[in-house]
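User: Structure with 2-OXO-4-methylpentanoic acid, tokens only please.
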Amino acid sequence: MQNSIDWANVGFMPRKTNAVAVSLFRDGKWSAPELVDDFKFSINVFAGSLHYANSCFEGLKAFRGADGKVRLFRPYDNAHRLASSAAYLDMACPSEEMFVQMCLSCVKANLEFLPPYGVEASLYVRPLLLGVNPQINLNSSTDVLFAVMCTPVGAYSSGLKPVTAVLCRNYDRAAPNGTGRFKLAANYAMSMHPYNLAHKLGYGELLYPDSATKSKVDEFGSSNFMAIKGRSYVTPLSNSVLPSITNRSLQQLAADEGLTVEKRPICLEELAEFDEVNACGTAVVITPVCKIDDRPALESPEVTRSYTFGSPDKCGETSFKLYKRIRGIQNGTEEDVHGWCVIL
Ligand code: PLP
Ligand code: COI
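Assistant:
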């Protein structure tokens, strides 16, 4: 199978692999995890996940190292975050150990889809928690399906080629006291329509300001916001952004490099002062952003202000250094001094 995939052009799309790891929570307990090769699940039409978005998920990556070892990047952090999402939905969630073991068994069953070392591709692992018991009333799900699937992926958007972004003022992704800090399926539904509008306008990313005041930076629709300002790594402190594991890792690596890490509210005007701006996350890794347009509405041609950062052709120097470090740890070419990788 490996030979039939063009690793340089994998894209970011689902592929049928060998197996999905599954377990069902019913009557107060999880069934023994199984590997299944049928990707078409049968779900009751009244399942809460289909009607009321009783669903949350995770995203993490496995890498084939230069030393031939297979590394899963920070799976316990994903397990922990899934538990916080599930707790918000009042749904059962597998233990961290069960989560990690099922991710590992999914990767193991699909090793032929794990890209070789040396290509900018990885195996994206997607753990999914779905409420499946039939219901019509508005309740948390009592029966929960946990499925871990994976697919080989390359760059999510442009890789290290900078993209343009637009400030999304007339749609909100997350309410001020809402669910932005959890990885709920519902959050992504909220951003679907503005995303489509932004893409039609030619932007690669949408930057959400805080919903309450529209005066501070929150995050991108698919990733966190981080900026380099002189020798500082600056990222928003906000209750509405997803606590990104990539961002947390980059903050640590920035501190290791002697940068000052500033996690604090960022006023929109401060965008004018940043040297480098990036989207960061599992899918995007680090995607440089070379321009952010401020538009009062995504339906109107009016651009009230444009902020530009670095070169439109390449990643900023400090960001690139951080990119090389995180990718080095994931590939096993740099020492994993923080103990982030779990080896298969
Ligand atoms: N923010 C949003 C809205 C996301 O969807 C993601 C992707 O998971 C992130 C941030 C980045 O989080 P992580 O680095 O844990 O993948
Ligand atoms: C990830 O980065 O893992 C995500 O879940 C983002 C998604 C939009 C692909």
